[in-house]
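Issue: copy button drops trailing tokens. Both records pasted manually instead:
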Amino acid sequence: MKKAALLILAVTVISGGLLLTAYIENQYFYFSTYIVLQYIILATAWNILGGYTGYVNFGTGAYFGLGAYTAGYLITNFNLPLPWLIVAGGTSSAVLGLAIGYLTLRLKGVYFSIATLAMSIVIATLIINTPALGGAKGMYILRPKEVSFFSNYMELLFATMVIIAVFTVALAWFIENSWFGRGLAAIRDDEVAAACNGVPVLRLKVLSATTSGALMGIAGAPYPYYISYMEPLSTISLDMAVNSLAMPLIGGTGSWIGPVLGAILLSTTQQVATVTISSEYNLLIVGILLVGFVILAPNGLVGLFQSLLKRRTD
């Protein structure tokens, strides 16, 4: 019954997103909402490894950037359509997640986090020194002038991100309610006890890192068409890693809905601040909200709602 309800909800969200393109003409709506959807994907992907498994990952920018640059290279050299770019971006970042996961997930705590941060620096350095990817000067991408079913390419990108976001959240729900998710929860709670009880710890951790990386790469694949110009330091940025970490913490890392709530709250606030004040305050907003939630609601919005509901029922 719950699966049927969630399926209906997913179809409703996708249908509603597609219908919006027929009625909303303000292009800034699609431009800003794209970022909100992008962070829903990234926050949910981060939560699979950081929330469900308990390994804090600062490598979001590396996975996202690799997916974006894979797509950018394929656009400039082969002019592949968007679906192929998404597949290629997700695959390249999945391979990175598999490799890095196998090499670093034996580390624990802050050592793993430092390793993922170093990975972002390495990926950015490699791109800077690769002329085929534009190097330090960056890469220009031209959007197709004509697009089917939509009035412009920005609307197509918006619709694409709606579909990817729904798929990502649905996958997170499935993982949370499957044997995979139960194994990850056991690892997060007590890795040694999980291994002693027969949980394939390393296999599940590597699978978690691969899945998380693939979803981040998929989020990055449409980015070249969205931004039109990419350069390594802004594409593979620490801001993205901080946002992707803060959003699940604000929403609640214990469930699939937490990162969605956190991403909507934080990214929407940042978009409003960018228009009304300045984008320079975005990280300040992250810090204020994060400190506030750590003090007042350490379990995030989901935990806060659950505690309030429990008080009413008691």
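Record 2 (pasted manually too):
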Amino acid sequence: MSLTTMILKMSEGLGKTCAIFFLTLLFSLPLGMIVALLRMSRNKIISSVTRFFINILRGTPLMLQLLAVTYGPYYLFGISVSRNKLIPVVIAFAINYAAYFAEIYRGGIESIPAGQYEAAEVLGYSKTQTFLRIILPQVVKRIMPSVTNEVVTLVKDTSLAFTVSYQEMFTIGKQIANSQTSFVPFVVAGVFYYLFNLIVDRVMGLIEKRLNYYK
């Protein structure tokens, strides 16, 4: 198989890799905020349950979580696995990354001085208005480097979808490598991921630059 043919075959899975990436961010970023707020709840039960949830997701391999979400329903309840494996893959990725984003959000929220809440209260802002108009914009600015790091990691983690035989780029590359007894497909995959990360890093860098409005 020529290098050109190999690249074309692997590029067919690139769209599925991008689908995992963008759908994971679409669901995990807002879900992470919800989890963070539950984690910070004054209700001890809610806070403890949420903390346990976060610890489980951060303390176990994403690969294991992919297998659990994809095949767990069948082994536990006899429910047939969906033919479209993108659904369980995105669910597993979104839940896992929501746990990481939740802790990033929590760190950002807790870094805001208490005086800002008090000042907003004096000005007549409600708690919701204070959070949305005063706290959240500052939190977003402060957590961008950490969020960027997680987003870059997500690009590479999409390759774990091969564990459930989802035909994304790395899975196709692995199949070609096995059939051709060659390491070249892995090199090609590495180049793809590197270029993808360059684009992501550039975009996130531009966002960070826009948020540095005091410089």
